[in-house]
Design a protein that fits this description.
Layout: H1 2-43, H2 46-49, H3 56-84, H4 87-133, H5 140-152, H6 208-248
Helix pairs in contact: 1-3, 1-6, 3-4, 3-6, 4-6
Length: 254
């Protein structure tokens, strides 16, 4: 009976080891996905971040990158702990899983807070940024971001094209008689096309660029949230398997 019991325990331990190894492989891939989303946010969409006064959006991306790196390192550590059957390594592995879980909760909370205040922030700051900083000294990043925003989302001005009438740059001689920036034009390759603000020449979108940018950021926050929830669910499974394997192993000698 004792031999059968030991054999059953050994089989159970082996099954747990391979389940945990499979989990670690999936977890490692998930870490890469989390890190990729964070890097994509900062690199591909960094221009838009410069138009936001709050840093919560960027901080959430940095947290995702940090969590992704830790996840990938933890996945390798988990494989070592699983096959070496060392309870100390399993303890470290479990603590790291818990830390990553808490990091993801933090990123989720920040994303939710930002989701709630995004509309007000854009209303208060986007128009001011566009009319005060566009084509101003040492504000090249803002100019580039505004041009990209208006061309990618096919919009003109914060709320409407008339917002540009109050622009510091449009009112100056540097604008060369433009009513709006050339990036408002449907065909921006034509030099000085911003002089003509007729709807046939420039984008006239209801709600302006605020609505377009808000929808874009909200959709991206949903992606961040979905990735975080998915990885968190995988982690809960991993922590369960880790506890089972930890209990199935005999205490190692000190």
């Amino acid at each position: 009976m004792g031999a059968n019991k030991d054999k059953n325990e050994t089989c159970g331990t082996i099954c747990l080891k391979y389940l945990l190894f499979t989990f670690n492989f999936l977890f490692w891939l998930a870490g890469g996905a989390v890190m990729a989303v964070g890097i994509w946010t900062l690199v591909e969409k960094s221009d838009y971040i410069s138009l936001l006064s709050s840093k919560i959006y960027a901080v959430s991306a940095y947290i995702l990158i940090m969590a992704g790196v830790i996840v990938m390192v933890t996945g390798v550590l988990g494989c070592c702990a699983t096959f070496k059957e060392q309870r100390r390594l399993l303890r470290v592995y479990f603590v790291l899983l818990l830390c990553i879980f808490l990091l993801e909760i933090l990123a989720g909370v920040l994303a939710y807070i930002y989701y709630q205040q995004l509309n007000e922030e854009l209303k208060e700051n986007l128009r001011e940024t566009m009319v005060q900083k566009y084509h101003q000294p040492e504000q090249e990043h803002v100019t580039k971001a505004v041009d990209k925003l208006q061309q990618e989302f096919k919009c003109c001005g914060s709320n409407s094209s008339s917002d540009w009438l109050e622009s510091v740059w449009i009112r100056s001689s540097n604008a060369d008689g433009r009513s709006v920036p050339d990036s408002c034009c449907k065909r921006p390759v034509i030099e000085l096309c911003g002089r003509r603000d007729h709807p046939s020449n420039i984008y006239k979108v209801e709600g302006g660029c605020i609505t377009k940018l808000e929808n874009f950021i909200l959709n991206h926050l949903q992606i961040i949230g979905a990735v975080g929830v998915g990885v968190a669910c995988v982690q809960i499974v991993g922590m369960f398997f880790t506890c089972c394997l930890y209990r199935s192993l005999k205490s190692e000698p000190y």
